[in-house]
Amino acid sequence: MKVKWFLVMLVAVAVTLTGISAGMAQGKDVIKLKFSNPHPMTFSSAPVMAAFCDEIKKRTNGRVEITHYAGGTLTTFPKAYDGVVSGVSDIGHSHIGYTRGRFPVTEILDLPVGYTSGFVATHVKWDYYKKFKPKEWDKVHVLYFWSVGPQILATTKKEIKKFEDLQGMKIRGTGRPADIIKAMGATPVALEMGDVYDACQRGLLDGVYDAMEIWKGFRLGDVLKYGYLSQRGAGSIFTFYVAMNKRKWDALPPDIQKIMTETAEEWVDKHAVKTLEADQAGMDYLLSKGGKVMSLPEAELQKMKKAVQPVIDDYVKSMESKGHKKAEMQAQLNYIYERIDYWHKQERQRKLKSPYEK
Asked: Which residues have C-beta within 8 Å of that of residue 86, sequence separation ≥ 6?
């Protein structure tokens, strides 16, 4: 009886030790990655990215754990790309406007081509990347592109009734948007977003050129009075990217790579839909503060579109000077225009609520 009891205990101990050993082995096999996201968790895209990290852990049965560092705690927007390349972060998020000139081919996506919404732009930009795969991204592995809503005009005191009213106005804009603001006859003012509220309040700015989301996200709805649905006239949008360290990506098992690729593809649409919700919230916030959101007359939109065309032409010329063929640039632009039309129709067919459909 004692011998039998001893054997039972021995088996129990062996099973326990085996479990501990397996747990330790599993712990060693867990792939841990760092995701740098300079946006704070209060910004609409941050929870979407945090959910991406959670989803990867779920779909890999815990084999991959991605720690999401929001609010610039790991790298800032301008340093996000270098952080990924150097390995400070394994995955990084930023937009190409923060490092103008580093992704010259991809900057074609930041031109004022008349994006009708962030949903449309997000899908168009990702379609573009998958089709053309610019070599300038070869140092990293791109997981996906996405966009916020269109950069549109909003003013503090003066109402814009016709295109000419923009002449001489001080409008906040940095990077390529500054070129667009200048082309429309206004004066671009480069300010960090954190300084824009105070500048509007003190009269140092007459308005901003940015997505509606910031009207709530940065409380600019408190100091702005008029918003204009000017996206069809000069609808440009920064191109955001989520990229991974090349060495870390290449070291992943093929099945993990497949899971991350499939998940990233799904997250493009999640971002696309979220940007509509975020811009609607921005519009609602401005309206709740007594502001107005207006559609500009078609004639004024056409004036605007004509005024910013030189920005597109100058980009093509600059790329020609770098050895790119004009025909290739035009073909890429035509592709962008075609995808804008396609995704605008998809947005309507899916009956998605867009604040731009007024």
From this structure: none
Identify the domain boundary among 247, 274, 301: 274
> Do strands 170-172 and 207-210 pair parallel, antiparallel, or not at all (unpaired)?
parallel
Residue 281's Cβ-count burial label (10 Å; 0-12, 13-18, 19+) is middle
Q: Residue 68 corresponds to which tokens in the numbers above?
A: 């999401």
Q: Residues 337, 202: one domain? A: yes
Question: Measuring CA to CA, which residue among 121, 154, 71 is closest to residue 274?
Answer: 121
Q: Determine the Cα–Cα distance for residues 219 and 182; give it in Å rounded to an integer.
A: 25
216 and 294 housed in the same domain: yes
- CA separation (Å) from 192 to 199, 208, 228, 302? 10, 12, 22, 30
- pLDDT per position as a tens digit, 91-121: 999 999 888 899 999 999 999 999 999 999 9
Alpha helices in the chain (DSSP H): 2-29, 45-59, 80-86, 118-132, 176-183, 193-201, 213-217, 231-234, 246-251, 254-288, 298-321, 326-349
Chain segment 137-173, per-residue pLDDT in tens: 999 999 999 999 999 999 999 999 999 999 999 999 8
Single-letter residue type at 94: S
The answer to whether residues 126 and 342 touch, using CB atoms and an 8 Å cutoff, is no
